[in-house]
Specification:
258 residues, 0% strand
């Protein structure tokens, strides 16, 4: 018998932790899909390690959400036993891998934000979130450096690699506006100095992105209409397919443990 979905009491702090954890889990899973398929052995290992970093971040945030919610849920429940509409991740991270250039550009756009975000979150008045941020920033700094180097290599490489990298930038740009999304739930935590206002990081993110894209001889899209919805549970069709794979074991064999 398939396992039933859990219910979650989404207080502002629980919702915050779930949003950031879902980002890390879903992107980590996307990177895991490259295992055995990357263009070279070193990159196969690099993508797998970045995926493990992100899943580690997700575990810490899920564990904290469980402690704050105090309703009997745990990290496995959050990861494996919520319906697709209960996930709060960015639309950007659930987009399919596509070719290698698309995966790298997606990672770069996310990491350029995540590194700034975790740096700022180290000053959180919440000691647990500050500690998670300190660990996560070390990882995100590597993710940003690695993906930036690849964006430059692809953009300033062959005509074909340049074409693919530019196509990835153009296709994924519309999902970047959601990086800076806030709602009433977030604003209370921001006012209490528990979390960072992502809007305060927009200028720094743009500067990083433009510098790398310019070095890569890639065009930076002009600001336009942006996709949104992931933060409040409205997702692209891709997330349902991803979750059907991610959750298949736990749904089929309730209570299964590693």
């Amino acid at each position: 018998m398939a396992a039933a979905s859990i219910s979650v009491v989404e207080s502002p702090l629980v919702l915050y932790a779930l949003r950031r954890a879902d980002d890390a889990l879903i992107l980590g899973h996307r990177l895991s899909e490259w295992c055995g398929h990357a263009p070279m052995m070193e990159e196969d290992m690099a993508l797998a390690n970045m995926g493990l970093d992100l899943i580690g971040q997700a575990r810490e945030l899920y564990s904290y959400a469980a402690k704050v919610e105090d309703a009997g849920n745990d990290e496995d429940g959050y990861a494996y036993l919520r319906d697709v509409r209960q996930y709060r991740n960015l639309l950007l991270v659930e987009q399919p891998n596509g070719d290698f250039a698309r995966t790298i550009v997606r990672q770069f756009l996310y990491s350029a934000f995540a590194d700034l975000y975790w740096q700022a979150m180290m000053n959180s008045r919440d000691a647990t979130l500050a500690a998670i941020a300190a660990k996560s920033e070390k990882e995100s700094a590597y993710h940003l450096r690695h993906s930036s180097e690849w964006v430059i290599r692809l953009g300033d490489g062959t005509a074909e690699s340049h074409r693919r990298a530019q196509a990835a930038v153009d296709d994924l740009w519309a999902f970047t506006g959601e990086l800076f999304y806030t709602d009433e739930s977030d604003r209370g935590l921001i006012a209490d100095q528990l979390v960072v206002d992502p809007e305060s990081l927009r200028t720094g993110w743009i500067e990083i992105v433009k510098e790398v894209l310019q070095t890569a001889t890639l065009d930076c899209p002009t600001k336009g209409w942006m996709q949104k919805g992931g933060r409040y549970g409205n997702h692209s069709e891709h997330l349902g397919h991803l979750l059907s794979e991610l959750q298949s074991l736990q749904r089929s064999f309730p209570g299964a443990k590693w």
